[in-house]
Amino acid sequence: MFKGILIDKNDAGYSARLSELNEDQLPEGDVLVRVEYSTLNYKDGLAITGKMPVVRQFPMVPGIDFAGVVESSEHPDFKPGDHVLLNGWGVGEVHWGGLAEKARLKGDWLIPLPEGLTSRQAMAIGTAGYTAMLCVMTLARHGVTPEDGDILVTGANGGVGSFAVSLLAKLGYRVVASTGRPQEAEYLKALGASEIIDRSELSEPGKPLQKERWAGAIDSVGSHTLANVCAGTRYGGTVAACGLAQGMDLPATVAPFILRGVTLAGVDSVMCPKPQRMEAWHRLVPLLDVQALDAIANEISLDQAIDTAKDLLQGKVRGRVIVKVAG
Predict the structure, then answer these.
(1) What is the number of alpha carbons within 13 Å of residue 275 lying toward its C-beta?
(2) What residues does each domain of the chain span?
(3) Hey, which CATH number is domain 127-266, 3.40.50.720, 2.40.50.150, 1.10.10.10, 2.60.40.180?
(4) For the chain, how big is the Rg over CA atoms in Å?
(5) Bridge partners of 175?
(6) Among residues 42, 147, 152, 282, which is most buried (max CB within 10 A)?
(7) Cβ neighbours for 224, distance < 8 A, ≥ 6 positions apart
(8) Coil, strand, or helix at residue 15?
(9) What DSSP character marks residue 129?
(10) Contact 84, 107 (CB under 8 A)
(11) What is the DSSP string of 214-278?
(12) What are the CA-CA distances from residue 142 to residues 36, 237, 253, 272 (Å)?
């Protein structure tokens, strides 16, 4: 038997509880992993609370990423004792995820834990840091350099935002951080932000074309915020969009795209091809700052995850939440 958070939906309603599970309940897969650490991402918060229909099969163990040790394997790339990590692939949505002490899944979804990282450090980065790195790679692929001007990061106090600020600053970009919590300005400046703006500047309906303010942006918010971000992007700039904290809608016009040549580039971390995700993880390692990781990460136990998920959705949690799963 082992512990895990189990989400279920039946005539009594939607529920999430810490449960005793056994290996016979685990879904099919060719690798069994003893999970050491997982995380709480925004999507996990939605899954645990049922605020959005993230979970598509019941019962479900949430947790879209984890790091741990292989217990048994029928996959040619992995053997018992290997340290591995996982992000995405529908885990925690259609396949049992990382908020349980054991996980069984397809070995093709796993990557070896990058050299120089512990399981805890990998989950301090987690899907949030990996997604932020994919966004940074997207800006670079579209030719946005530090010399081009400011880079805006929205939702800067969140997991993706915190890492985006830190990574961009480490790479020499001047970062403008947008947040709804101006009292966290010193935290963001410690991560590398040069300027802080209140999210209210971007979160309400705005003009379709606005003053050119930034050469690029990383947006995890969506809706009116993303529309305003595009409207304020300089000629030829790129906006990497990876989230929907404000909403899935995009109440924008084509003006920034056809009058300023702005590129809106979508960034997906869930089904990202394995070579690209491995590149992102390996590019993260030399940029790591252990002190910055400690500042970003807040560790909780598995039995605290449900209550913390509620706080996360209410904007009460700063940076990353890592979950110590192993007893």
Answers:
(1) 0
(2) 2-117+292-324, 127-266
(3) 3.40.50.720
(4) 20
(5) 151
(6) 152
(7) 202, 203, 204, 205, 206, 246, 247, 251
(8) strand
(9) H
(10) no
(11) EEEEEESSBHHHHHHHHHTEEEEEEEEE---SSBS-----SHHHHHS--EEEE--SSS--HHHHH
(12) 37, 8, 22, 18
Report the C-alpha gap between 93 and 126 in whole angstroms.
17
Write out the chain's pLDDT in tens, 327 residues: 999 999 999 888 899 999 999 999 999 999 999 999 999 988 899 999 988 888 999 999 999 999 999 999 999 999 999 999 999 999 999 999 999 999 999 999 999 999 888 999 999 999 989 999 999 999 999 999 999 999 999 999 888 998 899 999 999 999 999 999 888 899 899 889 999 999 999 999 999 999 999 999 999 999 999 999 999 999 999 999 999 989 999 999 999 999 999 999 999 999 999 999 999 999 998 887 766 676 667 899 999 999 999 998 887 877 679 999 987
Distance CA 82, CA 64 (A): 20
DSSP one-letter code for 113: P
Pairing of strands 2-10, 263-266: unpaired
For residue 256, with 0-12 CB atoms within 10 Å meaning exposed, 13-18 middle and 19 or more buried, which class applies?
A: buried
> Could you tell me the CA-to-CA distances from 206 to 200, 219, 230, 232, 251 in Å, in that order?
11, 17, 11, 10, 10
| Strand stretches in the chain, DSSP E | 2-10, 13-21, 31-40, 65-73, 83-87, 102-105, 111-112, 151-153, 175-179, 195-198, 214-219, 233-241, 263-266, 297-301, 320-324
Residue 114: count other Cβ atoms within 10 Å of its Cβ.
18
Q: State which H helix or E strand residue 293 sits in.
A: helix 290-296
As a whole number of angstroms, the distance between CA 195 and CA 175 comes to 7
Residues across the chain: 327
Fold of 2-117+292-324: Quinone Oxidoreductase; Chain A, domain 1 (3.90.180)
DSSP state letter for 27: P
